[in-house]
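Notes from the 1:1 (GR / supervisor)

We went over the backlog. Supervisor wanted to see one worked example end to end before approving the batch request, so GR pasted a single chain during the call. The sequence is below; no edits were made to it. Supervisor asked that the structure be written out right there so they could see what the output format looks like.
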Amino acid sequence: MAQSSFQLKLATVPKRAPYDEVPFSHFVKAPGPFGLTDPIVSAVLGDSVDYGHLFAYLFRRFGYPNYGWDNYKDLARYILATPDRELFLQIVPYVGNHTCISFSFLAPRTTIRALERYDVSLRRSWERRALDWQAQQGLPDWMDDWMAFCKELTTRFGFAEPADWRQTVDLMRGGVTPTSDLTTLAARFIVALRQAYHEIEPEPPLCIRAPDWSCWAADDPLKPLAKAAHVALTGLLRPVRVRDNAINAMGPAQHTRVLREPRVAGYPSGALGNAAPQEFARLQGLILQLGKGNARRGISRLLHVAQTTIEGAGAFAPPVPENEGPGL
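Structure output shown during the call:
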């Protein structure tokens, strides 16, 4: 992951696998009020960013939003790349200015499931030791009846039969409907087991990380994601020029090492969408289909077909001057 050469840019989330938001606030101890801060975002941008400054910066640096958005709830939606090829920065400027709402990160669902497994791994290991300890102490005389009940239940619903009483712990803990004397005994048994082993070895807490990701364990699977997120967010502080001035995501910025405006600056590309949004969205889909996912190639092919059709009909289409569009 070469961070020194990394540059923020518009990105497309792959469709080959489902992507979900990375719940950094769930995995990391937030430094501020619960629910109103994202520790990874806040470390770079704070808890608040003016939505007008943010949108102006995104529009000036990257051009038009590259993803659709909720036309009632949202102002716009941008998806940007991060140094991690499977992690994407999603920005939806929120008029309430909370950064925890404006910024989020998307990762494959399998990655997030792995994070969840890591976070409970210490407790799972502790529980395995507790079950082994209980096996050494001996099992209650009703355990054979319980195992027969669990095997009948799992067979009825098409699940694999448990080979050992340890594999029925989730049924003990979660309870079974309808309840019976046997299920009540099992539920009380697992609670008493955990309490008794806790006296021997205290149950470890859930993995809640400190706000500073740089001090996390080297084998923590969330650390490379937090590092990539930090680099991407820092990129939003790099200014882009507007005439003799410069702005970044937070507003007016110093003029040192400013970025040039995007190539689309000055072109009223969104004007067609204003005039016929549904039709233009359909046209965009056809363009991507023509280009097999490549917009430039699709537009070239469409222009060739259109120009051939116009010339064949003997019509004349005057060229459109740069940075000007047709009257709508």
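Supervisor's comment: The longest strand covers residues 103-108.
Batch request approved.
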